[in-house]
Amino acid sequence: MNRAGEGLPRPEQTRIMVVANQKGGVGKTTTTVNLAASLALHGARVLVIDLDPQGNASTALGVDHHSEVPSIYDVLVESMPLSDVVQPVPDVEGLFCAPATIDLAGAEIELVSLVARESRLQRALSAYEQPLDYVLIDCPPSLGLLTVNALVAGAEVLIPIQCEYYALEGLGQLLRNVDLVKGHLNTQLHVSTIILTMYDGRTRLASQVADEVRNHFSAEVLRTNIPRSVRISEAPSYGQTVLTYDPGSSGSLSYLEAAREIALRDPNVQQRHDESVQQLQQHQNSTMPEGTQ
Ligand SMILES: Nc1ncnc2c1ncn2[C@@H]1O[C@H](COP(=O)(O)OP(=O)(O)OP(=O)(O)O)[C@@H](O)[C@H]1O
Ligand SMILES: [Mg+2]
User: Fold this and answer.
1) Is 253 within the bounds of a domain?
2) What is the pLDDT of residue 107?
3) Domain, as residue range, for 32
4) Mean pLDDT value across the chain
5) DSSP letter assigned to residue 143
6) What is the pLDDT of residues 225-242, one digit of tens each?
7) Domain count of the chain?
8) pTM higher than 0.85
9) pLDDT digit string (tens) for 256-280?
10) Contact, 261 vs 224, CB < 8 A?
11) Measuring from atom 20 of ligand 1, which residue has the nearest CA?
12) How far is the CA of 56 from the centre of ligand 1 (A)?
């Protein structure tokens, strides 16, 4: 599939986003692969790191991940360079994937006895020399060493929340872990983005959950909700994202729109914006006649 011509602003520095929620089945993998494809179609160079032994992101991207394939396990446990495992994603220009194989199931335990066990992914990423605009890391549904490695490697946490009962349950534990990693291992880390998934506008429950999430978090929640859509859930069985499987579907359009919001909310751009507003205010204050400030 070709890139959309419009092109969104590309970040000055690589944005590393950790897609995490220890609750299972909330749409982490679906969000990772479809946002990554959307950003690539908007013109960015994007790497997906599959950090879940289930290998769902690798499957959904149509990337080979049988047990012989060099994978993120080799990077984490055997210190293999990331560039030796990254594969281009068929059909989407600018999109790449570091696959997960079943070996990764043992990594959680094998990592325990290795030096710098929490920062092995961060080291591998900083040694990776290919230019990238975004790295999206798909975490497993747990808060073990694999997720900690992702939290140490990234600056932004992206939390998908399913619009269902108990949506916010367990979120406190994730937020505490983010704070712990921020305090001890990665001062840059923060929750930058929350995305509501499997949203069914016909039910009162979905809008109640959405309201509750927006009351707890405000600026972080994307305006675009991802609808519950059969096309989104069908796409992985064809080794495709919904962007290539059914480009005109509501699911595809909503992920493209969510990606646009994320690109336009570049934290560095926002910071520069804040700084220029501040400078403007200072300038105005200094040029105003005395007594009017
Ligand atoms: N917007 C959607 N509409 C319909 N089905 C969806 C949507 N998003 C995700 N699903 C389906 O819900 C299931 C769980 O999604 P997904 O695998 O992305 O969650 P996950 O958080 O990665 O799960 P795990 O915790 O097991 O890694 C999958 O079968 C997926 O196809
Ligand atoms: Mg998953």
Assistant:
1) yes
2) 95
3) 15-286
4) 90
5) -
6) 999 999 999 999 999 999
7) 1
8) yes
9) 999 999 999 877 655 554 555 555 5
10) yes
11) 25
12) 10
Q: Which residues of 183-203 are buried (b: 16+ CB within 10 A; e: fewer)?
A: eeebeebebbbbbbbbbeeee
Does the C-beta of 198 come closer than 6 Å to ligand 1?
yes
Give the count of alpha carbons within 13 A of 256, CB side only. Answer: 18
In a domain, 5, yes or no: no
In the DSSP assignment, the letter for residue 10 is P
For residue range 100-128, list pLDDT tens digits in order.
Answer: 999 999 999 999 999 999 999 999 999 99
Distance (Å, whole) CA 293 – CA 287:
10
In a domain, 293, yes or no: no
The CATH code of the domain that includes 113 is 3.40.50.300
Q: How many residues does the chain have?
A: 293
Confirm if 134 and 48 have CB atoms less than 8 A apart: no
Atom 31 (ligand 1) nearest CA:
233
* Domain-located, residue 291: no
Give the integer Cα–Cα distance in Å for 14 and 227: 29
Determine whether the shortest distance from the Cβ of 258 to ligand 1 is under 6 A.
Answer: no
